[in-house]
Each structure stands twice: as C-alpha cells, then as structure tokens.
Amino acid sequence: MKEKKSNFSNSIGFVLAAAGSAVGVGNIWRFPYLCAKDGGGLFLIIYLILVLTFGFVLLTTDIAIGRKTKQNALKAFGTLHPKWRFLGYLTFLVPALIMTYYSVIGGWITKYFCEYIISDGSALSKDSYFTSFITSKVSPIVFMLIFLALTAWIVYRGVEKGIEKFSRFIMPGLIILILVIAIFSLTLSKKDTDGTVRTGLQGLWVYLYPDFSGLTVKRFLEILLDAMSQLFFSLSVSMGIMVTYGSYVKDDVNLNKSINQIEIFDTGVAFLAGMMIIPAVFVFLGTDGMASGPSLIFISLPKVFEAMGPVGKITAIAFFLMMGFAALTSCVSVMETLVANCMEIFHKTRKQMCSMIGIYSLITAVLICLGYNALYFELPLPNGATAQLLDVMDYISNSFLMPFISFLTSILVGWVIGPKYIISEVERNGEHFGRARLYSFMIRFVVPVVMLILFLVSTGIGNL
Ligand code: PHE
Fold this sequence. Notes:
single chain; 464 residues; mainly alpha; Hydantoin permease; two-stranded antiparallel sheet; 75% helix; YocR/YhdH-like
C-alpha cells in the first residue's frame, strides 16, 4: 500500500527540522574539542570558510536533489541517471550504520540527565564513573531503549505531526538553553591554591585567539582535514538525510534562503557550544581539560559541574537536556531516512516500516552496547587509532563512506548531469541564486579533488 507523500508545512518547519538533524552531538562535543586542539580561532576561521564553500555546495546538492526528484536517496540517484543507482545504495548505508550507535550515545545522555535529576551528581564526577557505566551489562541498554523508543515514536507520528512539530519546540528550546549556559560560562572564575585566578573571559580568549604557533604545512593540512570531516558530520550531508528532508520541501519554498538559515543555525550552535564549554573547562580544569571524544562530555564536564558548587546541578540538568534535544532530533532524522527509503522501496506503510527499522535499530544498538563488555574487542584502524565496535561503525560511515559518496556525487552532478540541474532547482520560482557560479566551480573542480584527498588520507591509503 502506498501512502500519500508527506511534506513539511512551510519553510520554517523545514529549516527547523533540517537544523534539528544538523545540530547534534557533533556540534556540542566534537566541535569545541577540535577547536581547542586545532589552534582556537585558527580552526574557527578555517571552519567558517569551509561552511561557506563546501558546506553550502554539499547541502545545496543534497536538498535540491531531494526536492527535484521528490524521492529518497535509494531511488533519487537512479532517477538522476540509471547507471548511478548504486550511489543511492551506498548512501543508504551511512544512516544504516549511524543508526546502530547514535541511540546508544543518546542513551548515555539520557542516563546522565536522569542521574543529575535524582542525585547531586557527585558520583558522576569520578574518573571511573563513565567507564563503569558503559561497561555494565544492563544500564546502557535500558537507557538506549528509552531514547530509541522516543525516537521511533516521533518518526512513527510522521513528517508533519512528528518531526516538524517536535523540531518546532525543541530547536528554540535548545537555543535558549545553550545561550543561557554560554553566558553563564563567561561569568565563571576560580582562584587556584597558588593564588592565580582563571576567568571565563580568559577562557573565551583561549577559544577565539587564532594560535599560529608551530604551524607547518603538515599541521595546517591536518587542521583542514579535521575541519572538513567535522563539516560533513555536522551538516548531515552525503548520507541521504538531506535528500530525504529535501523531498518533503514544497516547491514554493526558497531553497537558497533556507539553506543559508540551516548553515547559520548549525554553525551558530557549534560556536555557542565552544563558548559554553571551553571557558568552563578552562576555569575549572585548566587547558588540559579538553580531552577528546566521550571523555570531554561525560568525564570532564561533570567535574566542572561539581566544581561549580550549588549551581552545578541545575547547570548540568540544563546541559544534558539541551544535549538530549540535539541528539534526539538528529537520531530522528537518521531513522526517518531509513524508514522513508524502505517505504518507497517496499511499498509499505510508515507503521510497518517503523516496526521493521525499529527492530533493526534495537538489535544493532544492543550489539553496540555489548561491544563494551561481552563483545569487547579492539581493532587497529587504517588511520592509526584503535577502535571498539562503536568507533568502527563511526569510522566506516564518517571517514570512509562520506568522503567517498561526496566524491561520487560531485562527479555525477558536476560532470554527468551538470550543475545546471541543481541550479535550476534552486532558482525554480525565479529566486536569485547568488552563488551559482561558485557552486558550479566548486562541484566540478574543487569538491572532487578535495574529497578524494580526504578519502585517501582518512582511510590511511595516503599519508600526510
Ligand atoms: N549532524 C549531527 C551532529 O552534528 C550528527 C548526525 C550525523 C546526525 C548523521 C544525523 C546523521 O551531531
């Protein structure tokens, strides 16, 4: 049985839903960490340039393909060119892989949120707390289930009544929370035992100051690669998600304007996340506190909340609520993409496909949880890191598939069907696409070369 094609009710609904997908754990935990690691303001400048060039090109491509074909990635690429159907299948793999672990991370956030509600949170600031939680057998699965059920329920309610409706109150809520915490973070200060005082404003300087010291060509390329892979993940491009959301956009919506708004939203939240986290960590833990990955959010920040004293608990609750919002709307977009693609391919109803994808997500997420105990292993990755099950999924989807898909998409759009196809979709209602020439140039010459390099370096085939 075929259901009627769903749509976002208007441009704001679309922008908030797409921003909901884009704004996720990547903005709040990975962006600030990369900034601190890669020279503060230097990283910011590079990232901003990439958003305005690569980000805009890839986002425009995905969304325009979706709206023009009114199809999901699995079918859309075949519609663009029958020989390129395989690209749809490749693209589908990314959300299928991300789905396996995103709800697990969502579960961790849910757990921390609940713990801060019911306790004073002092246990969470202990070094071993996070590891003993994720390696325990039952708890991570229970919290993952709560988060997954919430995600599935929103997707089940559909595009307008579920995704759009929830994004409409979650996204403004997220902005308010992040603004309040970021401003609060700037007002912090602490006196060390030796009498030195560290303030939030000094922390802001650490964040914004472009540190060029020790900058070599190799180091610059490393920063560029960090910024580039962050950009993909952050904008949710090259994984079919924005194609799916684009297919729900009505023909009278001004795509160019909406894309600019989504970019501003996503980059703005990442910037604010840095303003929220870096000064706070600087004040309480010094410059060494900015450890990578999960430890920043789940180990360093609880220490910061603990050190804040009485306001720490309420700040922590606000923080994990905001982080939960960000993760939820992203996870919804991943699941929606899987459900929508399968509905189209198997001609089944949303309800049927939600159950099928729900079961898939459940089984794979349990496996990921078990990756920290019963199924524990460490695998060396081609890029030199060692990885557990979750990291392996992350690596295949983000470091391997996404640059490869972007490379192929740029060849298809730039050279096979031609950039005009996308440009005419953006200008559908006579809108002015100011950066049309930049778009054509980028998609034909710059994106393929850079994506190929990114792919080779991050898979370890090419060395910096
Ligand atoms: N864009 C999200 C973030 O920045 C992550 C995400 C990736 C969401 C893939 C959906 C799909 O965290």
